[in-house]
Write a structure and sequence with these properties.
single chain, 187 residues, mainly beta, eight-stranded antiparallel β-sheet, four-stranded antiparallel β-sheet, 18 strands, globular
Length: 187
């Protein structure tokens, strides 16, 4: 209970690698340990062919908005191509939208438009990747900010470490897919 702003942030939708609509959380809280409204999720499809794996799911956490909105996400892992693609769809238009990608504390990031170059040089297995972000969003890079809180990783209750967050802002458009692709590069 000692730091309510930090607790609120780390519980929020914005603090997770997903879409936030209209500045609202997917589930509604009623205090530090109480959820008043739980988003219901539904797995739609899971396919694994060996070379690739797909997973698709949706949730109803934005049904209280006007107009009501649903969020569907599909993830495709291409093992041979060493890539991961994420496809987000919102079925209602006109809502402010923020898509966040939070990186681990050992990951360095440089943002150039809608492309981020990632590296983790100080780890036991140094590597790098390119993250191609949805071009229809305006992207910004954040680390260790406190006004508002953004760009943090929490390894445990009451602990926080600065970490890069990529934040894309725009407006929801029905039928438009927000496609992100993470490509792992040779070390």
């Amino acid at each position: 209970h000692g730091e309510p702003a930090w607790r609120s942030y780390f519980r929020s939708t914005l603090a997770h690698n997903t879409v936030e609509l209209a500045g609202q959380d997917q589930s509604g809280d009623g205090g530090p340990f109480l959820w008043l409204r739980h988003a219901r999720s539904r797995e739609i499809d899971v396919v694994d062919t060996g070379e690739t794996a797909w997973w698709t799911a949706e949730h109803d956490g934005y049904q209280p908005l006007r107009p009501a909105a649903g969020h569907r996400r599909a993830v495709r892992l291409d093992r041979a191509g060493r890539s991961l693609a994420i496809f987000d769809e919102i079925d209602a238009g006109g809502h402010d939208l923020r898509l966040a990608f939070h990186l681990g504390p050992d990951v360095e990031a440089e943002l150039d438009g809608a492309t981020a170059v990632l590296s983790w040089p100080g780890t036991g297995t140094a590597g790098s990747a390119r993250l191609e972000l949805p071009a229809q969003l305006h992207w910004s890079l954040h680390r260790g900010e406190t006004g508002p809180i953004l760009g943090w990783y929490s390894p445990g209750l009451g602990r926080r470490v600065p970490a890069y967050t990529l934040l894309g802002c725009g407006t929801s458009v029905p039928g438009v897919t927000l496609a992100s692709r993470l490509l792992f590069l040779d070390a």
